[in-house]
């Protein structure tokens, strides 16, 4: 079996996280609309809870929205939109749409990384400019056209070079802890394995 690269591991790790509260709520609202439309059309007489669990199981073999992960989120949402009549069946997720979703999550992670490394690059905007220059020089493309793998490679490079840009703290300057409230850092260490990525991943409009 081919060994996965760190960029591929990051894409999988990010997609494996469960949904946040806002995403669960969005699925519930979409499911309610779909259930009402199905009842109106005479296609179901099941109570909402039974219907949504059965429909979710038919989609991804799960019966709770809280066990849906980031990779599955848009697929499930799309089906509910189709069942409610808000989208045509042709809109259902294809490989290109999945690729776009992975790219969107990678861009979000890049922006979060730029915030975390802002001090090393004279501010968040400086970090983002540096990231964009890496994308253009290394991958010969723009951020909007970069693949998820390319974006993750830039994230690793950005983290690796951040230490070289950081000025050593003076003896009088206290070090700021990277951990807040005991929570694990979400940034990816370029020199090691990929740790969990934050579950929050806003859906594209």
Low-confidence stretches: 167-205
Q: Averaged pLDDT, please?
A: 75
Find the structural class using helix and strand composition.
Answer: mainly alpha
Shape: elongated
**Share in helix:** 55-70%
Give the radius of gyration.
21 Å
3D structure, described in words:
The longest helix has 22 residues, at 95-116. This protein is mainly α and 205 residues long. Mean pLDDT is 75; it is low at 167-205. It starts with 5 loop residues before the first helix and ends in a 40-residue tail after the last helix. Helix content is 55%, strand content 0%.
Keywords:
single chain; 205 residues; mainly alpha; elongated; disordered C terminus
Summarize, please.
It is built from seven helices and no strands. The chain has helices spanning 6-15, 21-40, 48-60, 70-83, 95-116, 124-139, 148-165.
Task: List the topology elements.
Elements: H1 6-15, H2 21-40, H3 48-60, H4 70-83, H5 95-116, H6 124-139, H7 148-165
Helix pairs in contact: 1-7, 2-4, 5-6, 5-7, 6-7
């Amino acid at each position: 079996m081919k060994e996965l690269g760190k960029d591929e591991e990051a894409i999988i790790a990010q997609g494996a996280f469960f949904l946040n509260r806002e995403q669960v709520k969005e699925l519930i609202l979409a499911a309610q609309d779909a259930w009402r439309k199905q009842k109106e059309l005479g296609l179901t007489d099941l109570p909402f809870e039974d219907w949504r669990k059965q429909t979710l199981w038919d989609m991804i073999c799960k019966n709770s929205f809280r066990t849906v992960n980031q990779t599955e989120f848009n697929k499930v949402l799309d089906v509910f939109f189709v069942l409610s009549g808000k989208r045509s069946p042709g809109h259902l997720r294809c490989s290109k749409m999945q690729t776009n979703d992975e790219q969107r999550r990678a861009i979000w992670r890049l922006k979060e990384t730029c915030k975390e490394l802002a001090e090393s690059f004279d501010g968040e905007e400086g970090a983002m400019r540096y990231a964009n220059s890496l994308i253009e020089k290394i991958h010969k493309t723009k951020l909007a056209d970069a693949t998820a793998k390319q974006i993750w490679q830039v994230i690793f490079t950005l983290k690796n070079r951040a230490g070289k840009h950081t000025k050593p703290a003076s003896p009088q300057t206290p070090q700021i802890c990277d951990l807040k409230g005991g929570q694990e850092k979400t940034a990816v260490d370029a020199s090691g394995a990929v740790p969990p990525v934050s579950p929050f991943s806003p859906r594209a409009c």
